[in-house]
């Protein structure tokens, strides 16, 4: 594959941006590759600076559930630009997006817009600590909630990808109150909550983990978190930055029938522009400044251009049948991967929740981070590179998920399965 322009751009980028990228996982270090520089995208296709084209399963790491440049999103952005780009004052658009989120997610009675998933979870943690007057928090190994200091403990995604234990620059005192437990380990959570429950401000969890690869919750796990937080007057925070409006219109909480106290959102609600949000019960959210005393702020929070993109996106995904059709395509892909791997006698564990897919090179079901880390990372790298050569753009890390959009057609799905069949054949 000709990648001359990407390599030239990467060399330039390396001189002016740390690692040549503005987010670590994009550097493709984990798979021993260099990043392609993207020129443009349309629908489910992405085109690099050398004119190579790919079927895109990263989708900007989740936001592009409609595919790239969906006409309704582009129109909405174009229209709002006639009004301006940022006022630092309330607009009708942020009220509209808030109403859409509240209408979609049963547990959310009020919502605050921020500019990233990191801001959303960081603010949710501060809110939980402020409301409960407690300091300790529980997260789970392999879950990634953004790069706020208190949450960079045993994190997934880029932290796991790069094998960074936590991160230098985070004082021990900043994570002294953070307990990280094995995901899906009900007995461990029960034990810790029995011992320390009354000191725990909140449990924050990815209801479907997407940052250690895709790891769904095992039966009863989320229910136990809900029960134990209620029993101890702790708050349950669902980090739905990735799963929100991805796995269902009401998020993972609607799939599993759990009502968390606070939910975090991002990605899809911004339609490709920088948006995060956190929301929940009115009595909790009313404690956020300026209504309450728990502080959180942001110059560009509720930015009208970003709100317009988010509104246009949610108005599309709420249409009847959207998630059913997306699920059918995603199921076809998951089953296709399993079939061609089996034909090539390659051990893979494929999982799917909605249009989030995961593929581990292992013969066992992956239920937590330790198990995810035992999968064959070398095999993953070879698979990643092989698929890229065949025009399939996958996340350059075993510890990420794969996203199907409504712009992917059956032909794109079948083309991808064919590519996997060839790659698995070559791998053997
Ligand atoms: P951002 O600050 O990157 O918008 O969101 C942080 C975040 C919070 N919670 C969950 C469940 C997330 O998945 C994320 C961010 N996801 C990663 C991909 N796994 C973003 C990609 C990147 O870091 O470049």
How would you describe this protein?
- With 428 residues, the chain is α/β, with parallel strands linked by helices.
- It folds into two domains: 173 residues, Alpha-Beta Complex (Aspartate Aminotransferase, domain 1), CATH 3.90.1150; 247 residues, 3-Layer(aba) Sandwich (Aspartate Aminotransferase, domain 2), CATH 3.40.640.
- It contains 15 helices and 14 strands.
- Helix 7 packs parallel to helix 8 and helix 14 crosses helix 15.
- The site of ligand KE4 has 21 residues, from helix 4 and helix 5.
What oligomerization state is this entry in?
A: single chain
Mind describing the biggest β-sheet?
Answer: 7 strands, mixed
> What letter string, H or E per element, gives the SSE order?
HEEEHHEHEHHEHEHEHEEHHHEEHHEEH
Structural class: alpha/beta
Low-pLDDT runs of 5+ residues are none
In brief:
The chain has 428 residues and is of the alpha/beta class. The protein has helices spanning 4-16, 71-81, 92-104, 117-132, 157-161, 172-175, 186-196, 221-231, 252-256, 282-285, 304-317, 322-343, 369-373, 377-389, 410-427; strands spanning 38-42, 45-48, 53-56, 110-114, 136-140, 178-181, 200-205, 235-239, 262-265, 276-280, 349-353, 356-360, 392-393, 402-403.
């Amino acid at each position: 594959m000709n990648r001359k322009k990407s390599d030239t751009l990467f060399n330039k980028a390396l001189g002016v941006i740390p690692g040549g990228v503005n987010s670590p996982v994009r550097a493709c270090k984990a798979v021993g590759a260099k990043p392609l520089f993207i020129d443009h995208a349309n629908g489910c296709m992405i085109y690099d600076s050398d004119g190579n084209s790919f079927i895109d399963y990263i989708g900007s790491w989740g936001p592009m559930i409609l595919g790239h440049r969906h006409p309704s999103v582009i129109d909405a952005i174009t229209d709002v630009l006639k009004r301006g780009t940022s006022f630092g004052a309330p607009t009708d658009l942020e009220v509209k997006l808030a109403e859409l989120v509240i209408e979609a997610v049963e547990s959310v009675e009020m919502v605050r817009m921020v500019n990233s998933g990191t801001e959303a979870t960081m603010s949710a943690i501060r809110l939980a600590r402020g409301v409960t007057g407690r300091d300790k928090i529980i997260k789970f190994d392999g879950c990634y909630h953004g790069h706020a200091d208190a949450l960079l403990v045993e994190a997934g995604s880029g932290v796991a990808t790069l094998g960074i234990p936590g991160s230098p620059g985070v004082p021990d005192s900043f994570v002294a109150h953070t307990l990280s437990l094995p995901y899906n380990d009900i007995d461990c959570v029960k034990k810790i909550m029995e011992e320390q429950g009354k000191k725990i401000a909140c449990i924050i969890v990815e209801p479907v983990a997407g940052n250690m690869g895709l790891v769904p919750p095992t039966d009863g796990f989320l229910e136990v978190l809900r029960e134990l937080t209620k029993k101890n007057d702790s708050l349950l925070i669902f980090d739905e930055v990735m799963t929100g409006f991805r796995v269902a219109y009401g998020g993972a909480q609607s799939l599993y029938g759990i009502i968390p106290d606070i939910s975090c959102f991002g990605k899809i609600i911004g339609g490709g522009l920088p948006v995060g949000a956190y929301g929940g019960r009115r009595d909790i959210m009313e404690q956020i400044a300026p209504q309450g005393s728990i502080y959180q702020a942001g110059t560009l929070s509720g930015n009208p251009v970003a709100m317009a993109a988010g509104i246009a996106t949610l108005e599309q995904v709420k249409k009847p049948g959207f998630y059913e059709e997306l699920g059918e395509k995603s199921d076809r892909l998951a089953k296709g991967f399993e079939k061609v791997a089996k034909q090539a006698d390659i051990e893979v564990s494929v999982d799917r929740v909605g249009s989030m897919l995961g593929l581990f090179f292992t013969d066992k079901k992956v239920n937590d981070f330790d198990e995810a880390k035992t999968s064959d990372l070398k095999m993953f790298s070879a698979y990643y590179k092989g698929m890229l050569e065949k025009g399939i753009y996958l996340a350059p890390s075993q510890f990420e998920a794969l996203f199907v959009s409504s712009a992917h057609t059956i032909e794109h799905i079948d083309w991808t399965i064919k590519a996997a069949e060839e790659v698995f054949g070559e791998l053997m």
